[in-house]
Amino acid sequence: MEVVNVQVLGLFGYLFAEVGRYAYFVAETFRNLFYKKFYFLNLIDEMNTIGSRSLLVLAPVSVFVGMNLCVEGFIFFKKFGAQNLVGMFVAVANIRELSPLIAGLITGAKAGTQMAARIATMRITQQVDAMEVIGVNPYAYMIIPRVIGAILVMPFLVVVAYFVSTLSAYLVAVYQLGLNGDAFMNLVFANITMQDMYKGMIKGAVFGGIIATVSCYSGYTASGGARGVGAATNLAVVRMSTAVVFFNIFLTEWMFM
Prior knowledge:
The radius of gyration is 21 Å and the shape is elongated. It has one domain. The chain has 8 helices and no strands. Helix 3 crosses helix 6. The chain is an all-alpha fold.
């Protein structure tokens, strides 16, 4: 029993230490946000990389999610003879929850892991140390463009996920389930507002900040050669996914309750 307690205390100690180191990393990132030199071309490159890499996976995943959401909603509402309300269910569930989460998780899996792997490689091959020696701020050069790029791109990925999944749900509702297309779209527009869209985009921006900082932190603190790069990438995926789902709870309560 004592051994188990020691292991549990050791796990909590490790978690608290990691949270503390991550908080320090985020603080250093914000402290260097207004560094004398801003690498604008790095920002543009990161925005292009994050958007292009994530979009190729996000679009087909959003199609399947929209189709499945429509079928599940139809099955549930049919029990009460209210299958025509599927459009309302799809609209609200999509913009408030699924689209931001899908965009966050896909972006983390694609662009986030690339961030972690690149920075881990630079750390292990001592390129970060070389930057510091020649007077280049590694936060300003590597971290800040990635963080700002993710924050700026993620809201647009949320919008893409929403429209693609809603369109696929509409096609399933009309051509497979035989529902009235006009009634479906009327319920979609009647139950969402631009405020809902903005809130979904805000979620996306927050998730973008989380994904970028967690990915960069995992890579920046990597060690142990080539194996360390793989470990940093795996840790980044686990940390990002957990953080996105965890903070989504508080964002939903804050925005919609």
